[in-house]
Amino acid sequence: MTGAFDRPSYALAADLDRALGDPDAADGPFSYAEIVAHEENDALPPDAVELIRSWGFAQYLVPEEFGGGLRNLEQLALLTRVLARRNLTVSVMFGSALLGVNSVWLWGTEEQRARVARGMLDGSLACFAVSEPDHGSDLGTNETSAARDGDTFILTGEKWPVGNATRGRFVTVYATVEGLGQSLLLLDKEQLDAGSWDNHPFVKTVGLRGHDLSGITFRGTRVPEDALLGRPGAGLTGILQVLQITRTAIGALSVGTMDSVLRIALRHAQERVLYGQPIHHLPVIRRHLVGAYLDLLIAECTLQPVTRSLSVAPSRLSLWSSVVKYLVPTLGEEVVREAGLVLGARSYLREGVASGAFQKLQRDHAIASIFEGTTHVNLHGIAAQLPAVARVAQRPAPGGEDILRQLFDWSEEAPVWRPAGRALRLTNATEDEITRGWGEAVTRARQVAESELPAAEGGALVTVLDAFSARRTAFYARIADGALDAATAEAQDIAAEHCVHHAAASCLYTWLYSFERERGSAGGTGWLVLVLARLLRRLDPADPAAELDEGLLPALEKLILASLDGPEYFSLRTVKAAAGAA
């Protein structure tokens, strides 16, 4: 993560990475050996949370505007990726805290923001008490109620399951408030009457062992009137908007997991000798490892610009956050599966390779597709917006060039996030520069292919772009000309394909805006051809353009191996640095 291309956020993440240490080391609270040993007892390693707090992680949950260190969501995603690379359980603990306080940053009063900021910076946690045992994601059905009693409310109801419900001091509660409707309330447990509420035992889970997934019951709990958070009666809208931020951030959990499992599998493939040679030389093992690495690059290209959009174009998050929440964890699941195939029988063991950490990572990552809206919920949200997007998909968005450059140009960090609930919306309408900029981007890519690239590489790029363009044109025309019922299985498939087109465009823009100096060098464009072919394969495995170009693979494989034991992540920034040095 270090180098000439790093900006302050990357340097900050590198500092955290050093503080946590080498996960393959024999000791330390973030070593695989310690993590796995304590997970056997449903616990976190002693001193793990304290180490994170002493490093100062909590300040990056509090925006700069309110006295913390959080500059933007891109910064927090980079830090989360570092943490998730070791221990998803600890990452989710802090992620649940972020979810619990984001409503305060967006809509809180000056006093609410100041009190919560002080508490978070002092080490307190928070939770988002929305789900109920009988209703799950049916947010329209909410049995928790708050009845008026003078200048207070009497709160009654049960919320479960809730991350940090027991450990959290601050509780953002979704309740039906008498005379106001569905609203959010900000509670501070330190100010609640003892005996008027209680926590549930931790839920036993397959993964994330040691995480506080519990619940809270209110039994006539007296709550001050100034606990109201945001606009009265707008609780459901607020939930849908705040989830856009954490849905995006979840992508960092997946990318961190991808980095870890790929690293574990690749190291095993180098050390494991069969038939007289390390197994990474076997064609089938090679295919799994290369495919997993390309999926990680795709996930990174998809995630990073959407984290930046919170500061650049927050109104787009209603659609873009769902794309990230569906596609990145899906890619993560596939990378875990590819790594498991490389490990073979050892993927099933809770000891041995990497101290058995692969099993933990596999179980922990399964949550990524479930919380903050399941895969089906996010695909439904995408499908509901696609007709409007499809009708303008062939027309560049006004001002799109400026927004795309801010999203995809790494030479500048994302602007500082100034939390404002009014900036988030429930629908993008036709605002989707990532979809609408494809045509112009392909034209520019063709010009680069003709003027800057070797003939073979330029030809391969044009071939895969043409294949994508033909499919894309027909895809959006079909949606624009018909009616799409978002509740159908067909709509889910259509939404999933849109996510692939979104990812392909994101990869292309990353190359155009952040590889301007490197794209003519060795490795500076080959990665783009390979990831586009990999994405095309998801749509049509039989398309000749979906075959990985064997001539482009050796340079990529060399880079993967070179990154294995160095400080760098498996990342496009490593690809960029290598191309720049070529």
TrEMBL record:
CDD domains attached here? ACAD (cd00567)
Is this entry keyworded Flavoprotein?
Answer: yes
GO cellular component, alphabetical, reads: plasma membrane
InterPro entries, per the entry = Acyl-CoA_Oxase/DH_mid-dom (IPR006091), Acyl-CoA_Oxase/DH_mid-dom_sf (IPR046373), AcylCo_DH-like_C (IPR036250), AcylCo_DH/oxidase_C (IPR009075), AcylCoA_DH/ox_N (IPR013786), AcylCoA_DH/ox_N_sf (IPR037069), AcylCoA_DH/oxidase_NM_dom_sf (IPR009100)
User: Which of UniProt's keywords are assigned here?
Assistant: FAD, Flavoprotein, Oxidoreductase
Q: Which cofactor does it need?
A: FAD
Q: Name one GO molecular function term.
A: acyl-CoA dehydrogenase activity
Q: Name one Pfam family in it.
A: Acyl-CoA_dh_N
**Could you list the residue ranges forming a coiled coil in this record?**
none
Q: Which residues form the Acyl-CoA oxidase/dehydrogenase middle domain?
A: 127-219
Q: Source organism's superkingdom?
A: Bacteria
Q: Where is the Acyl-CoA dehydrogenase/oxidase N-terminal domain?
A: 38-123
Q: Which residues form the Acyl-CoA dehydrogenase/oxidase C-terminal domain?
A: 233-385
Q: Which family does it belong to?
A: Belongs to the acyl-CoA dehydrogenase family.
What name goes with this protein?
Acyl-CoA dehydrogenase
